[in-house]
Amino acid sequence: MTGKELTEILEDSSPERTAALFAEAYRVKKGTVGECVYLRGLVEISNICRKNCLYCGIRRDNSSTGRYELDSAVVMEAAGFAAAEGYGSLVIQGGERTDRKFIDKITELLVEIKRKWPLGITLSLGEQPEEVYREWFEAGAHRYLLRIESSTRELYEKIHPVDSVHSFGTRLRALENLRKCGYQVGTGVMIGLPFQNAAHLADDLLFFRSMDIDMCGMGPYLEHSETPLYAYRNLIPSKERRLELSLKMVALLRLLMPDINIAATTAMQVLAPDGRERAIMAGANVLMPNLTLSEVREEYQIYQNKPGVGEDAALSSSSTEERLRKMKIPIGYGRWGDSLHFSKR
Ligand code: SAH
Ligand code: SF4
Predict the structure, then answer these.
(1) What's the gap in Å between 26 CA and the centre of ligand 1?
(2) pTM of the predicted model over 0.85
(3) CA pair distance 252, 255, nearest whole angstrom
(4) Which of 52, 86, 282, 308 could join 316 via S-S bond, C-beta 3.0 to 4.6 A?
């Protein structure tokens, strides 16, 4: 598919053709990675961040949120919970921090977790020097998520401050460094941003293919009142449209890259209670139930109205599983669910 064709499909509003697209993506998924959905327990380790992304609720300059960092013991407890529940993997996500104390803490946690449980570990801790990526890989992490946010440099620069800490070039190099270190590399974008059109999204899909990514996590942009981008909220598509565009992006990516892992992201669930399930029906095959303890979860609000805030780990994960069971979707308990694309490379 060309950029023009992808743009046309993204702009098309026919419900019949959209339903056919989702069905085709599901069929392709079933024939390549299979119907199984893999679970990764998500731990939001800290909302302290050195960056000031214009869209994000935990950006450095948002002084209206309290800041926290989970103790290692709490992370270990969450990892133990994930292992006991038969989740094959854990995702450790957080604000971008480059202080040595934090880097060491992650390294030690990785070693400890791998010593105790056979979990696959994904990190999502922003841009780091190549040596740090290597250190964490050697300590046991084997997948990394770093969204490009938008593959169009111009748009990237509209949603980030323009300075050396928020450089598009650095982000691209970080993705390349992750690959060099041996990670399964995941990236993604936000969908429905101010200043973004369907052609940008089509370019994002082609970017994923040209980067030969192993995993993808994308979701709707959700406005946050304590951020600068909130001023442009009148420029964004309706909630329905943002969800539909997000689902179409999942489906199109499944057609373009049949054997990668694609996440049904939490942000989709904010726009519709069954948003993640709909993403699975449109070609996604990975779910990340949130394991962050309820006391701090409210403070990790990268966007507002996050579902599950106030729910405890066991509850939120069991409601996810309950819904999948009802849909008769098989769950890959106890399996890492690595990217098939990566294993073939
Ligand atoms: N600090 C790390 C990981 C945490 S943020 C990083 O930036 O990579 C994880 C993702 O949350 C970001 O990549 C971004 O795509 C998403 N995000 C942030 N603010 C958002 C918003 N307002 N709406 C939707 N997604 C958002
Ligand atoms: Fe920090 Fe990530 Fe939010 Fe940017 S998107 S402000 S790097 S947590």
Answers:
(1) 27
(2) yes
(3) 5
(4) 308
